[in-house]
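Consider the tokenized backbone below.
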């Protein structure tokens, strides 16, 4: 019986000591002796018996919130608000009075924590301290999530903090962590935050997974991006580039067919498709052309003609159309060369080849002259345009050499020789 009474007395003494400790924290807090209050509350919560005491955790929140806005102490304890948030979660867990203290305080502690973390994150971001900004924006996101979970607010997500957590992570070279926040934005279907368009976030995700070789997620975010931004060609280009790298020409050309239907007024997509068809059809790196080379060349010309009709002022289209006819003319020219004594049928065949060569050269001339019209009259040119102009002149010289037309040979040769000087 004496032992039981002794235990009871000891328990009362311990409880009394706890009450004195919390009262001391309150007094120190009221006197704005924050460093001493911090030491006292930390010491109190080191005692195992106090770990489940809601009031102790609540005053840790109050003390650390005060430290976070104190000019002398906030730099000494940069994680004060994060510590406060963790303490608040413990307070809610152990308060058996249904948040009596918090309700009386009108949710002030959690608002202070959230606002403080967000503002500190913004300050760090503006100071280009991206790792620190990430830590604080993550804290702000956690605070919002906690409030939502407890039913204190209806907003489940702080989109601005989420966006800047992602940007901070990326700038801190933590791309895998940036992924978490960018995915949250895209998966939520958000297209604007604070009046700013989120188009680049969707692009980032599609590109990230494409680079990772994650075809499923690459397809998912490419589709999401196209859904949200149907007029942005980024996703088409990303898909085409991935197909080029795969080496599957059938899939590449099938995708071009889809894109041409989706963008019937896009001259550049018809040009790119025609060019890639022609390059593939005339590729002899394996020792010979593909079996359906002739059909592919005709298809290439068709797509390039469509591009030309949509935009007749794009010099590269004229150059490639001229080059296709020119190359065919050269092939017929070679086939039509005399080869000693031959029979009448063979002579007739070679004569027909020479006639076809003339016809193909005639087809090429207007396109090659168009390149001169578009670029030759300009001043300084970009390197690609200078190359195109020089190639057009070179082909025109060869055509007129085959016809022994000296005035035109001289005229185009003069232009060829002066490309660098004039442009």
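A designed sequence for it:
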């Amino acid at each position: 019986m004496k032992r039981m009474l002794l235990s009871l007395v000891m328990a009362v003494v311990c409880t009394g000591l706890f009450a004195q400790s919390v009262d001391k924290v309150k007094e120190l807090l009221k006197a704005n002796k924050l460093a001493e209050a911090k030491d006292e509350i930390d010491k109190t919560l080191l005692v195992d018996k106090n770990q489940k005491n809601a009031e102790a955790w609540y005053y840790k929140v109050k003390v650390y919130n005060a430290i976070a806005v104190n000019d002398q102490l906030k730099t000494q304890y940069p994680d004060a608000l994060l510590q406060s948030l963790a303490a608040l979660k413990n307070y809610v867990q152990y308060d058996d009075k249904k948040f009596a203290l918090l309700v009386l305080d009108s949710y002030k502690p959690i608002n202070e924590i959230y606002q403080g973390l967000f503002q500190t994150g913004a300050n760090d971001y503006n100071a280009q301290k991206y790792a620190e900004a990430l830590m604080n924006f993550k804290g702000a996101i956690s605070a919002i999530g906690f409030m939502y979970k407890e039913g204190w607010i209806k907003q489940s997500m702080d989109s601005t903090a989420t966006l800047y957590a992602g940007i901070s992570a990326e700038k801190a070279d933590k791309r895998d962590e940036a992924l978490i926040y960018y995915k949250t934005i895209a998966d939520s279907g958000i297209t604007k935050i604070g009046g700013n368009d989120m188009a680049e976030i969707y692009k980032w995700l599609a590109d990230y997974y494409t680079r990772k070789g994650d075809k499923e997620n690459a397809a998912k975010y490419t589709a999401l991006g196209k859904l949200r931004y149907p007029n942005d060609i980024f996703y088409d280009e990303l898909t085409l580039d991935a197909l080029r790298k795969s080496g599957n020409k059938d899939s590449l050309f099938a995708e071009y067919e889809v894109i041409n239907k989706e963008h019937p007024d896009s001259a550049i997509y018809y040009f790119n498709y025609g060019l890639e068809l022609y390059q593939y059809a005339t590729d002899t790196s394996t020792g010979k052309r593909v079996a359906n080379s002739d059909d592919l060349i005709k298809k290439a010309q068709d797509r390039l003609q469509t591009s030309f009709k949509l935009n007749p002022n794009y010099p590269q289209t004229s150059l490639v159309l001229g080059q296709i006819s020119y190359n065919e003319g050269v092939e017929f020219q070679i086939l039509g060369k005399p080869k000693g004594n031959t029979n009448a049928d063979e002579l007739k065949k070679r004569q027909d080849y020479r006639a076809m060569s003339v016809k193909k050269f005639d087809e090429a001339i207007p396109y090659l002259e168009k390149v001169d019209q578009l670029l030759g009259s300009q001043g300084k040119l970009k390197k690609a345009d200078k190359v195109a102009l020089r190639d057009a002149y070179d082909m025109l010289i060869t055509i007129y050499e085959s016809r022994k037309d000296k005035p035109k040979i001289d005229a185009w040769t003069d232009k060829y020789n002066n490309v660098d000087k004039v442009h």
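The first strand starts at residue 192 and ends at 193.
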